[in-house]
Each structure stands twice: as C-alpha cells, then as structure tokens.
Amino acid sequence: MTGARRKLLTTAGAWALAAACGVLFSFPVLNTVLTSLKTVADISSTPPKWVFAPTLEHYANVFYAAGYKFSQFLANSLLISLACSALLVVVCLPAAYSIVRFGIGRARLLPAAVSLRLLPPVTFAIPFFILYSASGLLDTRTGLVLVNLLGNIPLGLLIFVSFIQELPQELEESAFLDGATAAQALRHIVFPLAYPGIGAVAILTFIWTWNEFLFALMLTINKATTVTVGASLFVTAWGVLWGDVAAAISVAVVPTLLFSFFVQRYLVRGITLGAVR
Amino acid sequence: MVQERRLGYAFLAPLTLLLLGLAVFPGLYAYYLSALDASLETFRSPRFIGLANYVRVLTDREFYGAVAFSVRYTLIVVTLELVLGLALAIALNRELRGKRFLVSLLLLPLMVSPVLLGIMFRLTLNEFIGTVSYYLRAAGFPGNLLAPPYVPYTLMTVDVVQWTPFTFLILYAGLRSIPDEPVEAAIVDGAGGWQILRFVVLPLLRPLLLTAAFLRGIDAFKTFDTIQILTAGGPGSLTTTASIYVYKTAFLTGHLGRANAAVVILLLLLSIPMSRAIRHILRSTP
Q1: CA–CA distance, A277 with B242 (Å, rounded to integer)
Q2: Is the Nucleotide-binding keyword given for this protein (chain A) (predicted)?
Q3: Alpha-carbon dihedral angle through residues A241, A244, A247, A248, given to the nearest 10 degrees
C-alpha cells in the first residue's frame, strides 16, 4: 500500500469514528427536541416519524397547562444559580488573591478545596437535611444557594488561583509603591485583569448549579424545587405525556447549552476542578 | 507589609467561615449521626447506639452488592471512556472535513445535566415510543434495554456517552501540546503508527491520562443522578450504586444514622484513591 493511499484510509477511518461517536453522543438531545415538536399521535406512531408537521402544543402545556409548576421551577433554578455564581465570585476571588500573593492558606486550604471536589455529595446530604430541617432552611432557595456554594468552592478557588498566578505581579507592585492598599490593588488592578476568569467561574458555577440534582432532590419538597428535580417529577407523575416531558427538558437544557458556548475554553479545567459528578 | 498580611487574612475570612459552616461542621455532624439511631421520625431526639449502625451496614448484603456494582461499573466505564476518548483525540488530531462541527457534536453531552440526559435516554429507549427501541426490535434485537439483563450495560453506555467528551477534551488538548520533534524522530527511526503511540505518545500523555482516570474513577464510583432517574437502583437492587444505597437507606427506609455509617465506610474505602488523586491534581494542574 502506498503512503498516500494509506494516509487517505486513516483519514477516512478517523472521520468515520468521529462522525459515528458524534451522532451517538448527540442523538439523545436531537431525539428529545424532535419529540417535543411532535403531536401526541406522531410521537407514538410506528415506525418513528422523522418528517412531520411541528407543533408547539407541548411547550404551551409545559408553561400554561394547569397542574404544572414548571415556570416556578425555572424561576427557582435561575435565582439559585445566579445568586450562587455571584456569591462564589465574591468569596473566592479575594481568597485566591490572598493565597497567591501572600501565600496564606496555600498549605491547607487549597488541598482541602481539592478534596472537597472529590468527596461524594451524599456525604453532606444527610447532615444538611437534618440541619436544614432544624433551622427552617429545608425547601428554601437560600438553603440550595448555600449547599451549591459549597459544591462550587473548589472550582472557584482553583480557577482563580491559577488565573491570578498568571497575572504579572509588577502592576500591583508599582501600585503598592504608589501607596495603594491590597484592597485597592485587588479592586483596580486584579479585578479588571481577571474579568475572563471571573466570567468563566461565574458561568461554570451557574451551569453546575443549574444541573445539580442530588441536593435539590433531597433538600426540597415543593417550594424550592429546581428544573432538574422538576423534570424528573414530570417523568414519574405524568410518565405517559412524553411530549410534555420532552418540551420541559428541551427548555431546561437551553441555558446551559448557551452558556457553555462561552466557556468552551475553560470546560476541561472546569470539570477537573468543578462540582460535577 | 504587616498590614497587608492582616488584609490577606481578612480576604480569606469569608471563605474560611463558609468552609467551617458548610463543610467542617456538617462533616463532623455526619460522624456523630452515624452513632445515633436517628430516623426520619426520630431525628430530633435520637438515642446514642454506638457502633450498632456500622454493624447493621456491614452485615447488610445489599451494601456489599452496591459497592460491588459501583466497583464493576467504575472499572468498565473508566476503561471505555479512556480508550474511546483517546481514540477520538487521535482521530481528530489532524485536518478533517467538518472538524469543528464534529467536535461540537462530540461535546454536546458534556453540557447537558446528567439527570436530563438520563431522561432523554428514558425517552429514546422507551419500550413503546422510543425510536432506538423501535429500530432495535425491527433489527431482531431485544426492544427494551431498560430491563434486565441489559439494563446495567445501558447505564454504563449512558455514562460513556456523558463523560467520554471529557476524557476526549483532556487528551485532545494534551495531544495538541505534544511537540513535533519526538514524533518526527520516531518516524525517522522507522517506527510505525502503533509503536509511536505506545512508546512516544502514551508516555507523554501519562499525567493527563492519570488525571482523567482518577477523576472519572472517583466520580463514576459515586454516580447517582443518571441511575436514580433511569432505574432508581432497581429492579430490586440490581443497579444500586453506593450513592443510591445511601439515598435509599436514608430517605426511603428512613434510617438516617445507618445511612451515615455507610457514608463513613465508603469514605474509608475512597480515602486512598482520593489522597493519591489530590496529590496528583495539585502537582499537575495549577
């Protein structure tokens, strides 16, 4: 076999593998979106219909039909995820600055944060359930914000630490020479330079909090229910209404798909350090 | 500078308080709970029962079944995800038509919440309306992959679909950062494709392969979301993972104390891989 032919064959093989996996990996999402646009009759037709007249009735059902509280689930997820992102940045950025520039907490706090990333979430689920029951935080959005903060601290801290490490120290030093305090340096020099890092942390935290299931399942009853738990309720309570289920999860994945587009560069770091199981 | 250091402590204070309140205190409380007869009804006034919870867990056959299932699940999915992720990274580490599009297709599952991906699989594999089920049946295969004996392998497939994008992404980034010289030198020396992979590329990728293996291994062992939504650990306890065992013990049978004893035992099992993983990650990432 000549070299050129051999190269062509490997390229074809590589393309075939990537395409096959690409189809397999994206099929569940595609199938769900298609199902959400089919009428009830089209959903249960055999063989499956791939060409059909689309309908938005399931989306209307999800938002307006009596008995579903999907809009409330969405609002809960949105509020919890936004609050968690904002708080996480506020707590972790100064801490990371302190770790990098003053070396305080590098020996203990940083490994502790990494181990937090590795611990099974069930470790915390039961104590949180009891402590929340006792303190009235059970089934509240505040409760879920707190527990998701815990879950995302490793991500926030470690991304900020590696980000600040890469910033040139000279700028701050000259600011100190001009009489600036560390707080001023953080606010006027580090903060603007760290915008991309802050964006990445905020978005990744938003995504992981939005996607979180275990704590939301165990620590909510009906008031603070998030979309992930809400979508799972659709399955058990209205298992037959697959069109509505499909529409609900199609809506629920949109924010994370949109956001993750902006953080593709950070996804590896985000998952390595982040709160994903 | 003394003043600056004081400010440094102030910067760390909120995080430290948060960790004390949200991790250290609940963590210690979990140990304490494991020695109480706390149940869903009695957790406000529990009795101290020493090691009785541990005895109950360690004599429970379902606990061993759950740990065994988690171990088997972990070994299989991590192997598959590393091999497939590496194969995809190698396949895409060249000029390909439509490469950007292929990569975004491959990364899609990474952006989807595990629970939602689980529901999507439920829909796709549904016995009656699932498209994949229909074609499987039409081709003469069993139509219901969510029933035994296939269901454990279906769950592993879901995990592979969800997380191979991650191993792919890590290894792809690694491959692209490998310098050309060692590979070219090997080609000059007459090495074939497999030899280059075995003796040049794999050694260079070793730290990343280890990171991926550690993270996926530990994360796969604690899998909860996808399995809870697809089978809830059933039928019976066929697909009960360690995490689902804890959940069932705590919230379905109501034994909060006993579930915590199981958590403590699991942490003990995980402590060695976890400490090795922490050392590896701290050395290689930031």
Answers
A1: 14
A2: no
A3: -110
For chain B, percent of residues with pLDDT exceeding 70 = 98
Contacts of residue B232, defined as CB under 8 A and 6 or more positions apart, other chains included, come to B244
Domain match, A201 and A69 both: yes
Q: Would the CB atoms of B129 and A44 count as touching at under 8 Å?
A: yes
Give yes or no for a contact between B274 and A112, defined as CB atoms under 8 angstroms apart. no
Residue A139 sits in the same domain as residue A218: yes
B156 CA to chain A: closest CA distance, Å? 14
| Residue A228 lies inside a defined structural domain of this protein | yes
Tell me what ipTM this predicted complex has: 0.88
Task: State pTM to two decimals.
Answer: 0.90
Domains identified in chain B and CATH numbers: 36-284 (1.10.3720.10)
- In order of A9, B33, B34, B255, the CA distances from B48 in angstroms are 69, 9, 9, 14
Q: Assess B192–A contact: CB distance below 8 Å, yes or no.
A: no
- Residues of A within 8 A of B2 (CB-CB) are none
From chain B, the residues in CB contact with A246 under 8 A are 123
Query: Does one domain contain both A20 and A88?
Result: no
